[in-house]
Amino acid sequence: MPRINLLPWREADRKRKRQEFIVGIAGAVVIALLLGLVVNLRMEGAINSQGERNQLISDQIIEVNKQIEEIIDLEARKEKLKARIEVIEQLQRSRPVVVHLFDQLVRTLPEGVYFSSVKQAGSQLQFVGVAQSSTRVSALMRNIEASEYLTDPSLGKVATTTSGSEFTLSAKQTGQTAEEPISTRKPVAARGKKAGASQ
């Protein structure tokens, strides 16, 4: 009976299977690497795309903030313009009142009395002046009380000097339409003779 030696065939079969196993492992590794590369590329693409979106949103936020600042600045300018317009309107309304006020200041001054300064804060007026005597100050207060545009005279102080009686007097303005204070340090008016002069 003939003998067949199967050892070389088995050895060759083992080598073939080993090679196929190695090739399979190598193929699996290559496929895994390719899949990992593809996934990595897709992840990087998604990250880059999201980064671009985030940058676009950030740019839009910056632009919106600029627009908000411009709107706030415009609102502030609008308020300033409204305040100026209101002041101008108040001044327009107060022009005749101021004219009447100074006219009344002249009319209320008795002989021998003059104002050295007049200050106004709102409707409150303060007068500093000189009179030849305290009786003329009393006459001034009566004239203010009877005035159409002045009321509530209140004597602050009276000091007798060589030039006459220096006094401080306050009163309220009626029909006040302007809130802007009026102040002057120059004598407003003088009727008759100044203090110290003969009657």
Short note summarizing the structure:
This protein has 199 residues and is α+β, with helices and mostly antiparallel strands.
Question: How does this structure look, described?
Answer:
By secondary structure, the chain is an alpha+beta fold. The protein has one domain (1-199). It contains two helices and six strands. Strands 1, 2, 3, 4, 5 and 6 form a six-stranded antiparallel sheet that branches. The longest helix is centred in the first third of the chain and has 102 residues, at 7-108. The model is unreliable at 176-199 (pLDDT under 50).
The total count of helices amounts to 2
Spans where pLDDT lies below 50 across 5 or more residues: 176-199
State the end-to-end distance: 176 Å
- The number of distinct structural domains comes to 1
Major sheet summary line: 6 strands, antiparallel
Which radius of gyration do the C-alpha atoms yield?
51 Å
Helix and strand layout, with pairings?
Elements: H1 7-108, E1 113-121, E2 124-131, H2 134-146, E3 150-161, E4 164-173, E5 183-184, E6 190-191
Antiparallel strand pairs: 1-2, 1-5, 1-6, 2-4, 3-4
Helix pairs in contact: 1-2
Kindly list the characteristics that best describe this protein.
single chain; 199 residues; 2 helices; 58% helix
